[in-house]
Task: structure prediction
Amino acid sequence: MEEFDFEAYKQMVKDHQDNDEPTSWCDSIYKDARGDYTKVFWADLESNPYLLQYLKKNITKDKKAIVIGCGVGDDAKSLSDAGYKVTAFDISPSAIDLCKKRYPHSKIDFLVADLFSYPKNWRENYDLVYECNTIQILAGKYRILAREKISSLLNKGGKAVISCRSRLLGKQENDIPKPLDKKEMNEFIHKDKLKELIFTDYYDNQEPAVWHFFAVYQK
Ligand SMILES: C[S@@+](CC[C@H](N)C(=O)[O-])C[C@H]1O[C@@H](n2cnc3c(N)ncnc32)[C@H](O)[C@@H]1O
Result:
């Protein structure tokens, strides 16, 4: 199998970001998998363990969840299994094709959409909004816009569940992906006026281990 060239990937993303094209490269990652969801380099092929733990403790029925940048669909599947009525979207048509092929009989509504221009009727419509690793692939103003759009999907009492790579303030400024710092996370509270219910950090099981944040905010 061809080895994934991480340096070439980072340069490709940087070139797009420098041209103010924040997301036009995303579909290529899924296209390169040639119909095999196991070949998407950033897909863990399992749900985030902190999301699973959260869902175990927060049993639900008849609630609506939306998954931002759902990738190959693992987290959407876990939310659906936990009882949510799930909409899962991605800007990449190839990602959504992989999800539909992977889960042909699922009740999840997998669809192509752009977080930055989502359908109007999604606004303030969801009990749970799940974001995992999308903000971190964006740069500059698009990170802020993404956070605002994520918060805008919440209904009153709705919860934003956020999972991402993390960094110390002022560090790793040029990384791709660029992890979130605590100040960016706190904007969910200070700018979007959400209440922090859970905030935790942890190291994953990669070699070397990567530092992450997992947080839940409520409107
Ligand atoms: C790093 S991947 C993470 C995928 C998945 N959430 C996971 O954790 O495996 C980021 C995802 O966000 C999607 N994405 C990026 N910008 C988006 C946007 N504006 N609207 C919808 N999806 C977007 C990408 O296509 C990609 O699937």
Notes: Residues 23, 26, 42-43, 69-71, 89-92, 95, 114-116, 132-134, 137 surround S-adenosylmethionine (CB under 6 Å). Strands lie at 64-68, 85-90, 109-112, 126-132, 154-165, 195-203, 211-218.
